[in-house]
Amino acid sequence: MAAEVSSGTKDPARADKVGADDYLRIVDIRKEFDGFVAVDDTTLSVRQGEIFALLGGSGCGKSTLLRCLGGFEKPTAGKIYLDDQEMNDLPPYERPINMMFQSYALFPHMTVEQNIAFGLKQDGHKRDAIARRVDEMLTIVQMTKFGKRKPHQLSGGQQQRVALARSLAKSPKLLLLDEPMGALDKKLRSQMQLELVNIIEKLGVTCVMVTHDQEEAMTMAHRIALMDSGRIRQVGTPDEIYEQPTSRFAAEFIGSVNMVNGRIEEDMADYVTIRSPKLEHLIHIGHGVSGFEGQEVSFAVRPEKLSIGKTEPTQPHNKAEGIIEDIAYFGSHSVYHVRLANGTKFMANFANMQRWASESLTWNDKVWVSWGENAGVVLTS
Amino acid sequence: MNAPWLKKLLPHPRWSVISVPYVWLLLFFAIPFLIVLKISFSTLAIAMPPYTPVLEYIDSALTLKLNLSNYLALVTDSQYFHAYISSIKIAAISTLLALLIGYPIAYVIAQMPPSSRNIWLMLVILPSWTSFLIRVYAWIGILKNNGLLNNALIGMGIIDEPLKILHTPIAAYIGIVYCYLPFMVLPLYTNLVKHDKRLLEAAYDLGAKPWKAFFKITLPLSKAGIIAGCMLVMIPAVGEFVIPELLGGPDTLMIGRVLWNEFFNNRDWPAASAVAIIMLMLLMIPILIFNRIQQREMEGRLT
Ligand SMILES: Nc1ncnc2c1ncn2[C@@H]1O[C@H](COP(=O)(O)OP(=O)(O)OP(=O)(O)O)[C@@H](O)[C@H]1O
Ligand SMILES: [Mg+2]
Fold it and tell me: Which domains does chain B have, with CATH numbers?
């Protein structure tokens, strides 16, 4: 369902704190498996201190891209630079990068403490220095009481904290998270999302995460790269991706959306009108768009941007009449599925602000949906 | 027919299934063991069978006569002690060699793509399908003075005189390691093939070079497979008779040969039984230790 755009967890002052704009540079990375292109000439920059999410459906190549960063896959072509150092030829054990694996990959024969100490030992630190760092990490992830346990004696959430502590213990320049919440149930998931972000931000580590869950990407990441069949379709902050999708794919992938096709009828500097065969009335956009008269475009508008009511709006455009076909009640809001006479369907959200509200809209009622002139976006691709 | 009292008398049908392994163990392990145990406490006699009864009922008196001299002989006659030590030594060295050879084999097979794993595994097991005796005899053909190995080495000009391998301890080691290798490889393979590749990736990720990751992750995690493989090789190897007899030399002293000598050459069944019982006891020790370790691990997993 519609993902709420919530940036609540992220420190707003953080934008100033981030360092170099292209701390991590991925240049024209391509990865083929026996001729099958999993990652297709991808270029990306990640800022220092940023939490960056690779978001996409199953099989779009996001894990492969992440594994290229970790050094577990060798890119077919392209370069990876971290802090201006080329990573391509470094094996995983020489990269200043640590990864939290999808199902954590904790060492089952080692205690929590030994797991966290493992990476530090490889660097040949002194014993007491390692012990101190392990304690510090356990405190950060609030697992001090569990240091002597084995992984199988921990709950899923606790295992995740240990995995996080282990991957952060070496203070990597880059932290990779592969589906960090994949193994947790829904309730624990939202709690751990916030906690993870807090810890990562506190330590100021740059982080690239992979997820197929848009809500997760939206809550956790500062910026999101939307991936589709090996290519990056759009990069932006969560609200940019949600409110200003640049393609039909992006608009449909994130949240739910009403989309109609049409042609630009009037293309003015300060407004545009679109004629859609599906709508009786014109679509009026209150700003100029980069297009030309007669161009085929799509118009996308989010359900919560629609108004729904029984009386016909006075405006001459941006409205449609239909009947309520279905009502989905979500507690905080309801989604009305409205069917126009020609079969086109619209979804409109209605916030349930009063306990007995609902303005007595019910099944098979004749209603009008309408939207403002800046409510939707015009998509040309 | 369906009278409840009858039902009570007859065992529950489930019982007949559960009891199968117990009946098997009773018939083919417990009873033979008790018979051997009994013979080991009897006295040698020129009779048929060649020993005196332990339990006698004469003139309404039941007498139990336990003859301990067979066991005392094992302690006092150093020949037995040496045979036990030598058996364990030969078995232990063979087990170690089998582990050193078998581990890499199992490891490599476990790394292969699943489609070719089974073929290689078959190749490891395949020799076991021919008779054990024939395989040991084949080694005689390979190792003897004008055998395949020596002829090949001489033919290549590496040596001038044939190496004396047959009828030395080396030949016995070769034979034991060769015959028992599949028993080492199989449990190791079963263990290694289940390893999660991501654990190794996690180790690399944390800065461990591949060899270090192997010793810190793969090796400890294959402990159960190593123990199982070693038990499967060591236990039968201690009692091995045919291989040292056919391939080993006069100085390849193993308890199996002592047993054979007592039984067939000396016809001293009681002494042979005592030797067998003590050997069994010696073998029980590692089995019990193994069990204990496994139990502790299981408990650790539960709590
Ligand atoms: N080792 C491999 N050999 C061959 N093909 C592979 C290999 N790894 C991945 N692929 C293919 O590359 C594509 C991308 O895989 P990838 O694991 O990156 O997907 P993903 O975006 O992480 O999807 P998911 O959300 O399902 O994990 C898939 O089509 C997959 O089949
Ligand atoms: Mg994946």
Answer: 17-67 (no CATH), 78-298 (1.10.3720.10)
